[in-house]
Structure prediction request, 929 residues.
Amino acid sequence: MIGKDKIFSTLSQVLKKSPSEQTEAVFIGTSTGLTRFANSYIHQNVFEISGQVFFRVALGRKLGVVSTTSLVKEDLDRALLTAYHIAENQPETPGFNGFAPKAKYEKIRTHYPSTASFTPVQRAEKIMRVFKIADKKGFTVAGSLATGESEVAVLNTNGVEAYQPFTSAATNMTVMGDNSSGYSEALSREIRKIDFTELGEIATKKCMDSKDPQELPPGKYTVILEPKAVAEILEWMNYTGFGAQSVEDGTGFLHERSGKKIMGDNITIYDDALDTNGMAAPFDFEGVPKKKVYFVKKGIGGDVVYNRIAANKAGTKPTGHGLPPGSGSSSFSLNTFVASGRNTLNSMISNTDKGILVTRFHYINGLIDTRNAVMTGMTRDGTFLVKNGKIAEGIKNLRFTENMLKAFSRVKMISKEQQAINTWWSDVGCVVAPAIMISNFNFSGKTEF
Amino acid sequence: MKEILLEIIEYLKSKKVDYADARFVSTIRESISVKNGEVEALSNNEARGVGIRVIAKGAWGFASTTVVTKSEIKKAANMALQIAKASAMTIKEKVTLCEVEPYVDIFNTPFKEDPFEVPLSEKLDLLIRVTRELKSHKSIKTADAALDFWKTNKVFVSTEGALIEQNILESGGGYTAIAVEGNETQWRSYPNSHRGDFITGGYEYIRELDLLKHVDRVQHEAVALLKAPPCPSLEATIIIDGSQLALQVHESCGHPIELDRVLGTEISLAGGSFLTLDKMNNFQYGSPIVNIVQDATCERGLGSFGYDDEGVKAQRTDVVREGQFVGYLTSRETASVINQTSNGCMRADGHNRIPLIRMTNINLEPGEGSLEELIADTKHGYLLDTNKSWSIDDKRLNFQFGVEAAWEITDGKKRRMLKNPVYTGITPEFWKSCDAICGRSEWHIWGIPSCGKGQPMQTAHVAHGTSPARFNGVKIGVSK
Prediction:
């Protein structure tokens, strides 16, 4: 970690020399260790210190973007000049109306020294605890544990000086048997909040309970999706429908559906980067304060998220969802929440005569028909037949193909418990989801295991 | 930089490591995106740093830094050593690497025209013109075009005496027209979806693509799809075009032959493989006309290089021969498990990532005849063209792909266009149903710069040589 003072002093000196009327600098730095394991031993163990500086130079509405991993003064000066020359030589960027103005940000604690200083030996010790739990049942474990710290700074010639340090601890584990597997995961800014024994026990039990899986024919079933499975669907809804570009292009399911009924009354989906139940962050990569945005409120189509360019094009205000420079008009929800309900996962199971419990999905793809949020994907690592209110047996994995707008109109129960699910952007966000029960969920195919 | 890396390797030798290597990687990427005649994103990204890989006490450790001074690289080396010792806490067997010749060499990608020397204004003008022309129809809501170029310098040094420098140049681009009417949205792309087609080589490929020449067809087809009837749901004979077949090879052959997957080390994220060790030389993967090779040496393939990131020379090896599964993609560590030598498939996504087994150019060898002849030889079927969506289970058996467009074939003629085509199957059953593969004249190596794998996530640049092929009894139209 370089720290706020050094980043600000280094970058502000470079900005002062900018030949342009408007310049922005973004720093993203990380110091992260990741331990990967499989067959109950560590097979990959890595540590990374990296930093990247992005410069955006504006000449009127012409923009030049350059990034470099070097923090050497001469390299930074050269990068800034390159950005200037790029700006000089390109047409105007529609929608650009200047960099963010100075703003105040929410004070949120997002950095915990105990997570930042967690060592490779400490990671090995946590993982070995899980190996022991699985080994007692004759199973092995695969997965990863990542701990580390990162920092984001945004400065611009309008006076924006935003800085936030983060820590994150993320783990996932797949317990493997001869013909079954079980999965669990956890994500927190504080490593001490992750209970490795509990995670090991959950994954081991799923592996045990799904032993010798039986084949179930594809068809329509009541399905109970655990939070991980719900989050995986939400990730694709986010890619294809929660950003301003999907409305501008007419490809997203919220295009021309704001204010219209698109899901069941019990469904509310929103972005809230200030909620510390997720991986909170006070501002985006343009230095715009984060705002709460409802995508779906009680089943009614809502708004999408905007960075500054997209907001200006759409004639609205930015919501604090800009990505790092060079991402064009892309705006992205990094802190997606599905509102909780009043039920529990156990009550969903006990209220199911015949249905399928899904732990997680594999390789969902939501590009089949983005206007209607049609998706396909496979179940994995713990798929169960629920019969007469109880988990009856493990079943072989199934493929689903569903219109998620219709599926989310058939949600019968939602759990009050939510879980923060790890994503590739988890330093600055995640998906927070409950378990949900959906009737007549379409399983369109099967596989051999 | 070579001198610093050699010093670090000497330092690690003095620490009595079992093995160590150091990689310096410097990459410049230029990425240009134009939408509806206006610049959407234009960036020039430079990244450089050093990654140190160590085996100590029989276990792996890796650390990287973007600060390329001797003192910081030495810190990274010490960290890699500490990490290896932590890994050794869970060791079952000591890591064994198969033998490799310690090469001292320089490799440069052959190219004619450096894309970084082509004026930015020329590249922008091309994309602006393409997207303006695509957008000229009222039903085309969005026209996206892109160009991407990478220039990478790598230096690899190992405790075994290797000293390899590589300069790799990659270029590519393409465009997509999105037609929208009411609730209907349809895509058409050229030369491929997902930002186009890519090679190792220079700007000469962008000129060869002749992007403007295909604008009218792409625009017309995107608009025509809005009114096209949906692809029916049934079992049918299908002909898959080369670009979609490239992704089929990628997902259903390229990933399951990665030996690290087979041995379980990717299971928690990307999954395992149905091609278990007992199946090598003992499993009918496809019909007898199916021949697949991994070939990191083929000209222009996006998966071509001189040496992998373990210093193993690029090779061409058999994967499927006359339908029989005969070989994996390997690393020095995994090859030793099956008593082979590495076929050079270890690559890392930059200095800050550890090499993993990645596809090179996984090529379906050509058969005979043209696409026109294959269509003429088909009584009833469907021609499926250009990837739109993809999904496959975690052992790579059950797959489902969506493509941009289909055409019904009756009595040897390509007839009406159909929208929203999807097909699904089980990998070996599917490849065993292959009864025709078009010849060399239809064969092309499709570059895919976005293959994801590993934790932390790594993106590899890979490719697949394919020509259109025919498959029987395939379930299509299963999207809803």
Summary: The mean pLDDT of chain A is 96. The radius of gyration of chain A is 23 Å. Residues 213-446 of chain A form one domain.
